[in-house]
Every structure is written in structure tokens, then in C-alpha cells.
Structure prediction request, 93 residues.
Amino acid sequence: MPIYQYMPDQDACEHCRDGIEQLQRLSDPALTTCPQCDAPIHRIISAPQVVSGQAHRTSESHAGKHGFTQYKRAGKGVYEKTVGKGPAFISGE
Prediction:
């Protein structure tokens, strides 16, 4: 679910004066008034967060340091442990 940002159309309360961030479903209608003071507000467009390259993948050293076990696909239905505790291989057979 995205976080939408709203700004007041006019003078508003302390809650919405500097803007409001609201977690909403894509299908939810946009807010039209501040939930606290009923001042008119409008949704503003902001830049999306974009992950570039492989930066979103968890490194093996990071996962192992925090106690996680990470497996990598080694073949059809076979996974090989790369870091952490647990069996060296997991197979669906």
C-alpha cells in the first residue's frame, strides 16, 4: 500500500499545517478534508522510491550476521545453503 501526501488548501490545524502522510490502498478514495479540523486538503504528487540494480537484494554477510539462513537455487527443486544454520541442501524429492 502506498503512502500518500496531502497538503491543506488554506490555513489549517497543527495536525495538517505541514502536510499529512496517509497509508491507503490504491482503491481508496483520496481524502478531501483533514481528519481533525475538516479543513480542505489535496493530494500532492511525489517521486516514487525506486531501487536500482541489485541493491534490493540481501547480501549473504548481512543475512548471516543477523541470524538468517539463505538458500540459492541450485537446480530444479534443489536449493543450496549459502549462509546460516540449517541443512546444506533442500530438495523437493
Q: What stands out?
A: The helical segments are 60-65.
